[in-house]
Amino acid sequence: MRGRKAVVGLCAVGGIIILWFALTSWFGIIPAGRFPTPAQFWVALKQIELRGYAGSTLVDHALHSLRLIVISFLVAVGTGIPLGLLMGWNRRAEALINPVFMLIRPIPPLAWIPLAILWLGLGDAAKVMVIWFAAFVPSVINAHAGVRNIDKSVIEAARMLGTPPLRMAGEVIVPASLPMIFTGLRLSLQASWTTLVAAELVGALVGVGFVLNMAQQDIYPAMILVGMLTVGVLGWATTFVLGLVERRVLSWSLQGRG
Amino acid sequence: MDSAPLTLGQTLRLGLIGLFVFFGIWLLLPTAGLVPPSFLPSPIAVAERVATLTTEPFAGATLPAHIAYSFTRFIAGFALAALIGIPLGLMMGWFRLVDEIVSPIFDGLRFIAPIAWVPFAALWFGTGIGGPVMIIFAGAFPPCVINAYRGARQVDRRLVEAAEMLGTGHFRMIVDILLPASVPSLVAGLRVAAGLGWQSLVGAELIVASTGVGFMMVQAQANVATSTVMAGMVAIGIVGLAIDMALRWTEASIRRHRGLDG
Fold first, then answer.
1. Where are the bilayer-spanning segments (chain A) (predicted)?
2. Angle A117-A118-A122 from CA coordinates, rounded to 5°
3. How far away is chain B from the Cα of A12, in angstroms, using its nearest Cα?
4. Do A120 and A12 fall within a single domain?
C-alpha cells in the first residue's frame, strides 16, 4: 500500500508541474505578470545565484536568515524551557509568574516587530528579539505541561528512594517532560520562521524576507517565487534537523512505545 | 508538585506581587528617567494614548475604526479558510484517493510561512481588502484542513459499518455520520486557525495595508510614536483574546451538548 501511495503522490506533484507549464508557457492562461513561467523562474534563480539580487547571492541571503533563526531559537528555547520547567515544578513560581505571562501571551509575536524596530533598529538585534518572543511562548507552555503530565507515582517513587533535588531534576523531571518539550520546540520553530520572514519584509537589508520585499517592489514574480521556495526549503530543512535530534534524544521513549 | 497545592489566597497574593513587580518596573524606568519616554512610555502613558486614540484619528482613522477594518478582513479570510479547508480536510479523511493526491502538495506548501505569500497576495489582489484576506487565509487554512482530516479519520468504524449494513446512502452517511462525529475536532481546529489567522493579519497589515491596526502601528513606528505602537499592541492582544474566548466558549458548549446527548 506504501507503493501505491508514493505513486499517486508523485503523479500529483508531477501533475502540478505539468499544470504550471500548461497554464503559463503553453497556453498563457495565467499572464506572466501574475505568475512566472518555469523558464522565467529558472532565469531568476540563475540571476540571484550567479550575479546576486538585493545585495547578495541567494545562498548568502539564506545563510543570513538561517543563522538568525538558529541563534534566536536557541536563546528562546534556552530561556523558555527552564522557565516552563520551573513553573511546572514550583507552584509558588507559577503563581508569581503566570499572571504576567498571561498578560503578554495574547500579543502575537508579529505585533512586536514595530516596537523591536523602534528599540533596536533594522539590524539583526531586532530580529532576534521578535523571534525570541515567537519561540519563547510555546517552549514555556509545553515545558510547563510536560512537568504537569508526569506520572505522580514516578515522582513519589523517586522521592521515597531519597533522590537528591539535582538528580531528581536531571534524571526524572527533564527526561519525563521531554516528549512534550519537543512538541513545543516544533511549534516554536514554525513560529520563528513566520516571524523572521515578516520582520525581514517590514525592514531588513539582507535575508530571504528582504529578497521577497525587493521582488515585490520590482514587481518581479519569478523572483518572488524563488524567495518563497527558499523559505519553504529552509523551513523544511530546519524541521527535518529538529526531527533527527528528537529521534536521537527520545530514542528510549519511542522504543518504549514499541 | 514539590508542595501541596496553594490556597486561593496564596495564589492571588503571589500573582498580585508578580503583576506589581512587572508594572512597577515598567512604570519606574521611564518616570525615574532611566530610559527616555520616547523609548519606553509608562503604562499610564500607554493607557492614556489608548483613550485619546478612541476619538483622535491616527494614520487616517481612530483606533476603533482601525480595529473594525482589521476585524472585517479577519472575518472574511477566516470564513474563506473554514469554508474551503473543512470540506477539503473531511474529503481527505473520507476518500483515500483525495488524501493521496492532496497530501503531498499540502505537506509541501505547509513549510512556506503564511507571511511569505505577502508579495503574491499584493500582486494578485492588491493591498486593500483582497491581499490581507489572502494572507489570513494562508495562515488559517492549514489548521482547518488538518483538524477536519483528523476528525474524519477518528470517526468510529463501528458507526460506519452499522450504517453501511443498514443500507445508508453515501450522501446521508456524510451528513448524518461523518459531519456530527468530527465536530469537536473541527471546532478545535477553528480555534488554532483563528489564532494563526489573526496573527497573519497583523503581519499583512504591517507590510501591505493602508488601514487597520497593523498599519497604524507601522505609521507610528515611522513617526517614533512609541506609545501609539504600544496602544496598537494592547488593542491586538485584547481582540485576539476576545476571538479566542468566543471560540473556546463555543467549543465548551458543543462538548456540553454532546455530553447531554450521549
1. 7-29, 68-88, 100-122, 128-147, 193-212, 224-245
2. 30
3. 5
4. no
Q: Which domain holds residue A3?
A: 1-30
User: Tell me: the pLDDT tens digits for A80-123?
Assistant: 999 999 998 888 888 999 899 988 888 999 999 999 999 998 88
Chain A positions in Cβ-Cβ contact with residue B23 (cut-off 8 Å): none
Nearest to B183 by CA among B175, B173, B195: B175
3-class secondary structure, B78: helix
Class of domain B41-261: mainly alpha
CA within 13 Å, CB half, B162: 7
For residue B119, the chain A residues in CB contact (below 8 A) are 212-213, 215-216, 224, 227-228
Model confidence band, residue B1 (pLDDT cutoffs 50, 70, 90)? low
A96 lies in the same domain as A216: yes
pTM greater than 0.90 (yes/no): no
Q: Locate B66 and state its grid cell.
A: 482601525
Do A84 and A152 reside in the same domain of the chain?
yes
Q: In whole angstroms, what separates CA A131 from the centre of its chain?
A: 9
Q: Using CB atoms, which residue from B108, B116, B226 is nearest to A197?
A: B116
Q: Is B55 on the interface with A (CB under 8 A)?
A: no
Please check whether residue A30 touches B, CB under 8 A: no
Shortest CB distance from A115 goes to which of B118, B229, B238?
B229
Closest among A77, A145, A141 to A106, alpha carbons compared: A141
Complex ipTM: 0.86
Domain of A180: which CATH number? 1.10.3720.10
Shared domain for A71 and A179, answered yes or no, is yes
